[in-house]
Amino acid sequence: MTWTPEELKAAEVEWTHRVFAEIDEMDEQGVVPNRVDAEWLAGRKLQCEINSLLSHACGEKGAQTNGAELIAAERTRQIADEGWTPQHDDEHVDCQLGLAARAYIHVARCQVTLYVNVEEFHLIPNDWPVDWLRETFKSSDDPVRNLVKAGALIAAEIDRLQRLQSQAMTRG
């Protein structure tokens, strides 16, 4: 399906209105700590949807999203759907987000090199943070999906460490 420029603009306007409605709803429900976070999150979701639409509109059938885009979209999903906000991430210490990422990488490695689906054995890699609930480990049977989750967790850990550094410099 090919979209005309007018159809793309109409879709963008429609999504923009929907995003602002989502921001207002998040703000009213207190889902995110402040309106700036709500605006960032809603804007990121809109950007992902528009990029997807544009790739289809340009006739790039079968075009794949690159790894960085997949990771950014997963991080947005984690915040929006799971509630793993930056404030929540700040509660984790000792590189727990990095360890969780390593657990997903371990599963992907097993799938790719050993052709083993770890999920079949109901195993959770030893890297999974010990004080995290087992139910929060949600590996996929797709190694790419597991690597995307790992990448998003690494991005969250990097952001957390940068916030710590910024706070230390401010107190400084």
Mean pLDDT metric: 77
Q: How many structural domains?
A: 2
Q: What is the overall number of helices?
A: 6
Count the strands? 0
**What class, by secondary structure content?**
mainly alpha
Distance between the terminal alpha carbons, to the nearest Å? 56 Å
Question: Helix-strand pattern, N to C?
Answer: HHHHHH
State the share of residues found in helices, binned by percent: 55-70%
Cα shape:
globular
Strand fraction equals under 5%
Indicate the low-confidence ranges by residue numbers.
56-62
Radius of gyration: 19 Å
- What kind of sheet is the major sheet? none
Write up what this structure looks like:
It is built from six helices and no strands. It is an all-alpha fold. The protein folds into two domains: 5-63; 96-171, no CATH class. The chain is globular, with a radius of gyration of 19 Å.
